[in-house]
Write a structure and sequence with these properties.
By secondary structure, the protein is α/β, with parallel strands linked by helices. Among the domains are: 94 residues; 54 residues. Strands 1, 2, 3, 4, 5 and 6 form a six-stranded mixed β-sheet that branches. A hairpin with a 2-residue loop joins strand 4 and strand 5. Helix 2 packs antiparallel against helix 3, helix 4 runs antiparallel to helix 6 and helix 6 packs antiparallel against helix 7. The longest helix has 26 residues. The relative contact order is 0.07. This is LPP20 lipoprotein. It comes from Chryseosolibacter indicus. Keywords: Signal.
Length: 367
């Protein structure tokens, strides 16, 4: 018997999927063995090997997770209630997986869940997280305040309105936010820092305020002052390259009689096609200096160079017009293109935005 290549490939895939649950079981991955076996039974409810694997893997997966939960509850782990909830959730996931397959339910008739046990643990988990948040806040550093924010946020997820977790979350986010007052000086108004400033301001724990607005916020102090100097912009001279093509063809011009037989006569035609390419590059620069207002020290200084490139082509035709293709004729009918200064400026701006955002986002996040 011969297999066609496609049928043979399908056979191999099916064979592999049949044994994947068993392989997971043999490796001690009982959780994975249950999931893979059930998925196989959804495709083929009478698959005996999957039923056999499921029958052996489910009790072992359940036993392993229950033992892990008991050990966690008996430990001195800081977040043992939260961690136990996560373990119970894995038991519940197996419960839902088995329940999703009628064939699997013929093997595991009463899958176990821990939904009712999770409820009482949620308040304990909130207590753990709330305490960790308070401890982090008391360290009074920006980094610890950010850590506290996520503790309080997770606390609220388990028990909404737990103590003052919501208020503490708001306060820790405020304490963890780096505030930056910025101003910019422009050269010939060729660009603006608006794009990368807006992107940076969207990052959590970073707030940028324009100096013009900052002066109206009497008494407010900022962590950093940033000067954005938008400097030179220039476009280089166009670079034009040419490539010549000598074209030779023949066309029918009539007929003549040879030995009383009409035969076509041809004429050789010639032409020259020149492919012209024009390239223009642009360049713009921005200088950024960041100072710590408390010490007056310069903490960041860098120059950025953004570039753009514009290209176009046109053709030059000479000689017999019949020798040229339609595309060549169209190219020759095009006048010499003029550089698109607007596109060149936009490209240089976008390149600068990308560079500045990449560099500053990392610096400000870790400052």
């Amino acid at each position: 018997m011969k297999f066609r290549p496609l049928l043979f490939a399908v056979f191999i895939v099916v064979l592999s999927s049949c044994s994947s649950g068993k392989k997971a079981y043999e490796k001690g991955d009982y959780y994975g063995a249950v999931v893979k076996s059930v998925n196989r039974l959804k495709q083929k409810p009478d698959h005996s090997k999957s039923k056999e694997t499921l029958k052996g893997a489910y009790p072992l997966a359940l036993q392993s997770l229950e033992q892990e939960a008991q050990n966690m509850l008996a430990s001195n782990e800081m977040f043992k209630s939260r961690n136990t909830i996560n373990i119970y959730n894995r038991v519940n996931e197996l419960y839902e997986v088995v329940k999703s397959s009628p064939a699997a339910l013929t093997v595991i008739k009463s899958p176990k869940n821990y939904y009712s046990e999770i409820g009482p643990l949620k308040e304990k988990a909130s207590e753990e997280l709330y305490g960790a948040g308070i401890t982090a806040m008391m360290k009074a550093t920006r980094r610890d305040s950010r850590e506290a924010y996520f503790y309080f946020k997770e606390c609220e997820g388990y028990t909404p309105r737990y103590k003052e977790a919501l208020e503490m979350m708001t306060q820790s986010e405020r304490d963890g936010t780096l505030t930056v007052m910025y101003e910019e000086s422009a050269y010939n108004n060729w660009t603006s820092s608006g794009n990368f400033i807006r992107q940076l301001d969207e990052i959590q724990f970073i707030e940028l305020v324009n100096k013009n607005i900052a002066v109206t916020q009497m008494g407010r102090k900022f962590d950093l002052n940033m000067l954005v100097s938008i400097q030179n912009y220039s476009e280089k001279k166009p670079v034009i390259t040419k490539k010549e093509y000598e074209l030779i063809d023949s066309v029918k011009v009539g007929e003549k009689v040879v030995n009383k037989v009409k035969v076509p006569t041809y004429q050789t035609i010639r032409g020259k096609y020149i492919e012209n390419k024009i390239t223009v590059e642009s360049e713009g620069t921005i200088s950024i200096v960041i100072v710590d207002p408390k010490t007056g020290n310069k903490v960041f200084s860098d120059d950025f160079r953004g570039t753009g490139i514009w290209k176009d082509t046109w053709g030059t035709c000479s000689g017999d017009q019949r020798v040229f293709s339609k595309s060549q004729k169209d190219a020759c009918a095009t006048s010499t293109p003029r550089p698109d200064s607007q596109a060149l400026r936009k490209q240089a701006m976008e390149d600068l935005d990308k560079q500045v955002y990449s560099r500053l986002s990392g610096f400000l996040k870790n400052y």
